[in-house]
Amino acid sequence: MMNIQVRRAEYVDVEELRELNRQEANCQVIHDSILRRGLADPYLITVNDRVGGYGGVWNSHSVGFVMEFYTLPQLRREARRMFHELLDEGRATGIEAQTNMPLMLTMLYDFAKDIRQESILFADAGTTNLPSAGTIFRRSTPADASAVRSGTFELGEWVVELDGAIVGTGGFLCHYNPPYGDIYMHVVESARKQGIGSYLVQELKRVCYEAGKKPAARCNPTNTASRRTLERAGFLTCGRLLVGDVA
């Protein structure tokens, strides 16, 4: 009979196990920085007094939701029992999982109810050669910050300019598991439906690669316009972020 124990741990106790989890996932882990930043509590799982895996439970944002779980390969048959102990020790009320990470997805389906979508996840699937739609793509400057200060969006590292006015901005965030960079962008309402958004994403992908990062993206499941913009720029759906309440 295996003796499974779960205890609250320090981040350093699970750091190397997290690296194994990333390698096995081989995809962008969209909440990768949460445990490292202290926004979730790490738990170390032992089996017969030996390290067997780890888990993470949100302590902010989605408080009480299990957001990471991993077992060593040789203990994978005990994953359900280990996860059950994690739910108890972490007093978990919910579970989140990416559909492109099979172990966590299995735990979601086995232990959760009322499962729902939070995000659509995208991976780069090809290079595009979209026209600029008359815009200039360039790095943003301090002067640009003052130009959009009264606007409804924040200035990113890059902008697209049309007839001397900034009509779009964006960049890529690098606090995800290497080598991924998460593309974000915004186009002003008056400049939408002209191909500017897709061109902006295309160019953000290019500079992301030039910085040694692999472009990824996500959007809200109800945001059809953003999804189409990403797809025109060469992104394709690679998964979903699902959440559910502990059954």
Explain how this protein is built:
This protein has 247 residues and is α+β, with helices and mostly antiparallel strands. It folds into two domains: 4-92, Gcn5-related N-acetyltransferase (GNAT) (Aminopeptidase); 124-239, Aminopeptidase. It has seven helices and twelve strands. It has a twelve-stranded mixed β-sheet with strand order 1-2-3-4-5-12-6-11-10-9-8-7, sandwiched between helices. It is elongated, with a radius of gyration of 21 Å. The model has no long low-confidence stretch (mean pLDDT 95).
In short:
Helix content is 29%, strand content 37%. It is an alpha+beta fold and 247 residues long.
CATH topology of the largest domain: Aminopeptidase
- Output the CATH homologous superfamily of the largest domain: Gcn5-related N-acetyltransferase (GNAT)
Q: Number of helical segments?
A: 7
Number of domains as seen in the coordinates: 2
Structural class: alpha+beta
- CA-based shape: elongated
Distance between the termini: 26 Å
Strand order of the largest sheet: 1-2-3-4-5-12-6-11-10-9-8-7
- Characterize the main sheet: 12 strands, mixed
Order of helices and strands: EHHEEEHEHEEHEEEHEHE
Which CATH class of the largest domain applies here?
Alpha Beta
Quick check: average pLDDT? 95
| Radius of gyration using CA atoms only | 21 Å
Helix content: 25-40%
Please outline the helices and strands.
Elements: E1 4-8, H1 11-25, H2 33-36, E2 40-47, E3 50-58, E4 65-71, H3 79-89, E5 94-98, H4 102-111, E6 112-124, E7 136-139, H5 142-148, E8 158-162, E9 165-173, E10 180-187, H6 196-210, E11 214-219, H7 224-232, E12 235-246
Parallel strand pairs: 4-5, 10-11
Antiparallel strand pairs: 1-2, 2-3, 3-4, 5-12, 6-11, 6-12, 7-8, 8-9, 9-10
Helix pairs in contact: 3-4
